[in-house]
């Protein structure tokens, strides 16, 4: 019964396996399995908290290394050193040994110390440099003040003596009176000089003014170049200030205020000679500091450059190592035998591969104890593992976005691969737009490798769906040909079935009516181009597209419904066939199948030849329900009887749908009970041991001495997520009632829902016609001479851009969403259960792909 | 050349193509994928063509327009 291989048709056969790994090679085994990415381990230590687990210590240590690596990265960012990204497609990292990891950890430790000490000294030096620079500025600017102020001592004194004098009179106007060289100290005037951030100057001034009640004389100058704040590395504009005041206390107060305002106060000598010496000294020291600073920076940069070459690889290695230890934490440890016991899910058909991998690891380690892998029987629900390839991946993703298929049910992505793009194309049908889309998707596939690296999110999304786009474009080319639309114009590929019936005395402007050229010739492929631009074009195409929507919808839903038959057969549930599939199918076909037959029949009859009036099918369907047996305009003879029968037959299915399955299940359950069987789900065999260790299974830790060769498994955890299905008639009945109501109503509403195919294709066609008539149409009509040609080029550019943006991208997205809905709702509701849980194997590949933090290190 | 029988001729062609798709689908685990996708694609395309063809087989209305220029009347 089981197929020899896993196919994309259903999820892979899974088996629960138990691994016995010698403690010494636990890490290597997990490493190898992580590279393989085929086993999903179960947590066997559910009762232990994260801190109690065996390998938490190692994880902590690796966390520390990771932190150090992040520190290096941030330092590199600060120093502007580019990171060499790791391209995993080109380079492969050999699995590291424990000693290598230890060495790496030690090396990181050493490097961190070195980098941080370098950093520290760099920062101190930088601070020193800034201080010295500031001091130099203060000396320079304050010197200027002094030189000017010496000339105006008289003035200042006058202002002190004379209460009426303005307090802050500008000195510039009064420097004429510079004749007396007198010291400030003689006047008992002291001063404070320093540097303050420019944005604080105003507040500083105000505070000083208020606290000292105006007993000060403040002078300031802007430092033209911004100074770097060493703590934040940001440039700050600063001012030099010199404040004169008299009285020691006031000066002390000023100092305090300056400090509290974040100003730096520097020592400036009053004497100009001493000041000159100071300037020289400061310059010399600044030079020294700058030299040392340059050296330190160079060393630091060299160190970081060295690190930057290997940083990505280290981050990846440590990330993997951490994942390995986290996985090892899931294992249970048998102290007596010094073995690790692991349990997990893996695809049955990949077991040989896993076995040989394990064998390899054991051989390489030179261990005599082999790693044992056992398949164990369980009635736990296996995870759904749907293998994908480059082509199916995106399709599978849009299915998985809706839900995870039940284990082994028909993979809903199988029909989606064709139906989703096809229904899209029915809505998007325009040859021109489709060709552009086709080119885009082919380009994405041709330059697959280089484009993979593009990280722009919107593009990455389109790129991910490039194969969907390809199939959609191919189908759109086809439907565009069928609709005979290329940028809203038509193509005259074949000779038309119509010709204009020109009456005698016809003049231009009179209405012309078409007539068939040849009763035996019909336009062979797609819509006749003669319809294009006619007055009753929409009348014809609407009727055609509406009917097409119904037929395609019917086909899609019937096809989907058939999968429920395949599912029921696969799961060996005949009652699902007789209680759900068959009555459902009859119900659907008796109403909508009949409608489709009528549509096709009506098309195939030449109503004018037989001289009858063609019936309206919509009215026919409405009367079929409202007045069974009443025929408005007959479609065929015996119609009333057929319709009455079909309606009766359809209604008859409702009670079958409603009652057959629940009552059958109850009967089956009761029969089994009578014979003394227990229900299937009542005792669940969670894992290998349950059966053998019933006696001491309650404590969840049976001894490992079981003679069957099965180990010990923690059971307590598993019982919580396991549902024991006790048969309850009421529940089954309610479920079936809901299913019946839903199914019957959905038959109607879903069929109507397919009319969106018509609506969207109409909208697309009309929109592109409007675009043409607003851009290219007038440009082609009115363009004359060279101006017309240039105008035409400009208009064409506009037409092309608008076509791409509105008609391809916007309309395409909208058609895609509608098609997606048709797949998710109208199709999946007919067969898919979506009751599975996804298979998430322990794999380095997915780990590296999904980890956001690692992403920046990978090229 | 193209009349009511075309539907059946088209059907025959499509059936032949489906058979070919079934037989010549590349072997391997993706065989089922090839078969189902190709056949489904052929059938969908046929269905659409057939619907379009049938809709024009016995038309109930004729095209009508009044902006035809003299040169194109018999075109």
Automatic annotation (TrEMBL), chain A:
Coiled coil: 101-128, 279-306
Location of the protein in the cell: Membrane
InterPro entries: V-ATPase_116kDa_su (IPR002490), V-type_ATPase_116kDa_su_euka (IPR026028)
Spans through the membrane: 422-446, 458-483, 548-568, 580-604, 616-633, 645-664, 786-810
Bilayer topology annotation: Multi-pass membrane protein
Region of interest (Disordered), ranges: 687-709
Keywords on record: Coiled coil, Hydrogen ion transport, Ion transport, Membrane, Transmembrane, Transmembrane helix, Transport
Predominant place of localization: membrane
Recorded family membership: Belongs to the V-ATPase 116 kDa subunit family.
Role description: Essential component of the vacuolar proton pump (V-ATPase), a multimeric enzyme that catalyzes the translocation of protons across the membranes. Required for assembly and activity of the V-ATPase.
Protein name: V-type proton ATPase subunit a
Native organism taxonomy: Eukaryota, Fungi, Dikarya, Ascomycota, Pezizomycotina
TrEMBL record, chain B:
Membrane-topology descriptor: Multi-pass membrane protein
Pfam family, one: ATP_synt_H
Transmembrane annotation, as ranges: 7-25, 37-61
Subcellular location: Endomembrane system
Main location: membrane
Keyword field contains Oxidoreductase: no
The protein's name in its UniProt record: H(+)-transporting V0 sector ATPase subunit e
Organism whose genome encodes this protein: Podospora bellae-mahoneyi
Gene transcribed to yield this protein: VMA9
